[in-house]
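Here is the promised in-class demo. Please do not try to memorize the tokens; focus on the logic of going from shape to residues.
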């Protein structure tokens, strides 16, 4: 199939040609030859490679087909591949480059010659040198080698797979543990560089997580969280999130490290970037979630509450992405697991409006968290002997009744529906005194009563 590609410069000078003394606008069309197109993406190939079946594809497309999709057959012929390593097709690449040069006036820039992918031998050699430098205590040498291998990993997914396959993560985690024993400012840069290299190949295998989850490594990670550079703190919390999410036995070890809780809370109160915020929230969630069980959990939650994390979370929830919203609500539910947390949430004017706003708007998970927290606040209010429920009245005023009714009719967990039913019972006694229609959410619905 041949498709017409309109010149990218048609809107500029490529569409204008001289005819006598006048400039005349014309529509210029060029076609890309079939053998220059990748059979998968149908786009002009940038790095043509040939499979064992003799069919040529663009490297990015065919490697996604083989490695990410896990398909070991030729996309065109359906024949099983005898080798998963595609071979660069230099002849086709040069033909494509020449064609681009000939059609430069139509907006086709010459495709640069791709760098050869890293070989297993090359990666193994760099990793061996890292081990050698580590044994000598040469922090500067390790830093240079990690930077080199990081650059290779960023070039392509194929390089990254090759790096991972050669035991990169385990070697770097062992190196991090070695230099952690010299934890001081002199070794800060190499420790941060190692964390940067490790963040490139998430998620980790179990051996790597066990090594980084050692008490010595956890103390160093906390040290970087408190005193590291912005990028160092970002990578430290990414690694920490990976450790805590996969091994709950490490939760109490991390919590016992001096300054660990304060360092995590600071990343929420003084955010660096969305990636850091997401990772920090997830790490905190694993520490405060109701399913977590270790001796000092309530003390830990109280520390987060005393640091004003509930007020910060509610501010973030006013306007945030889906990922941040779900994690923030999960953390908020965990912090409301003690009376101090419930009291702070109950006294914040944003709590009920924000929770009702998130119902049925973000995701099923966000809805379940919101319903759970509203239910907790309602029970807390009853335990305090409040005669007229301010939670129910505020929720009614911002349209909770209609949303909870709708929630009972759509797919949700049994527990969430039970909680929604309890909330509706509490609101029902106040319905006659409160206008509970939220026009923005239900402007097309007619009231049957």
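The designed amino acids, position by position:
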């Amino acid at each position: 199939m041949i498709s017409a590609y309109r010149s990218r410069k048609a809107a500029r000078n490529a569409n204008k040609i001289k005819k006598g003394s006048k400039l005349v606008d014309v529509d210029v069309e060029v076609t890309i030859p079939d053998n220059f197109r990748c059979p998968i993406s149908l786009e002009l190939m940038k790095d043509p490679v040939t499979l064992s079946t003799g069919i040529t594809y663009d490297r990015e497309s065919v490697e996604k087909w083989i490695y990410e999709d896990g398909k070991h057959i030729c996309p065109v012929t359906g024949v099983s591949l005898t080798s998963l390593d595609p071979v660069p097709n230099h002849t086709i690449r040069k033909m494509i480059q020449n064609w681009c040069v000939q059609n430069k006036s139509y907006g086709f820039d010459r495709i640069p010659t791709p760098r050869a992918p890293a070989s297993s031998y090359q990666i193994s050699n760099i990793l061996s040198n890292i081990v050698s430098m580590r044994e000598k205590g040469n922090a500067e040498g390790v830093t240079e080698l990690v930077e080199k291998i990081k650059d290779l990993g960023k070039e392509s997914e194929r390089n990254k797979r090759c790096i991972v396959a050669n035991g990169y993560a385990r070697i770097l985690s062992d190196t991090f543990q070695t230099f952690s024993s010299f934890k001081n400012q002199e070794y800060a840069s190499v420790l941060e560089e190692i964390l940067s290299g490790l963040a490139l190949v998430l998620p980790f295998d179990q051996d790597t997580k066990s090594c980084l989850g050692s008490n010595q490594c956890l103390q160093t990670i906390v040290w970087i969280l408190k005193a590291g550079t912005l990028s160092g703190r970002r990578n430290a919390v990414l690694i920490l999130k990976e450790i805590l999410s996969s091994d709950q036995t490490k939760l109490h070890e991390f919590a016992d490290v001096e300054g660990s809780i304060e360092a995590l809370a600071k990343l929420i109160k003084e955010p660096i970037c969305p990636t850091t915020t997401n990772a920090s929230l997830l790490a905190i969630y694993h520490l405060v979630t109701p399913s977590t069980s270790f001796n000092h959990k309530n003390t830990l939650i109280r520390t987060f509450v005393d640091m004003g994390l509930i007020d910060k979370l509610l501010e973030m929830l006013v306007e945030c992405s889906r990922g941040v919203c779900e994690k923030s609500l999960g953390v908020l539910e965990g912090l409301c697991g003690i009376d101090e947390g419930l009291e702070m949430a109950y006294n914040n004017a944003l709590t009920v409006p924000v929770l009702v706003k998130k119902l049925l708007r973000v995701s099923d998970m966000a809805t379940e968290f919101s319903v759970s927290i509203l239910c907790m606040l309602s029970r807390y209010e009853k335990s305090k002997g409040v005669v007229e429920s301010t939670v129910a009245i505020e929720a009614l005023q911002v349209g909770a009744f209609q949303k909870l009714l709708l929630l009972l009719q759509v797919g949700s967990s049994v527990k969430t529906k039970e909680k929604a039913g309890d909330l509706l019972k509490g609101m029902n006694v106040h319905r006659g005194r409160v206008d509970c229609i939220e026009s923005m959410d239900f402007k097309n619905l007619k009231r049957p009563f």
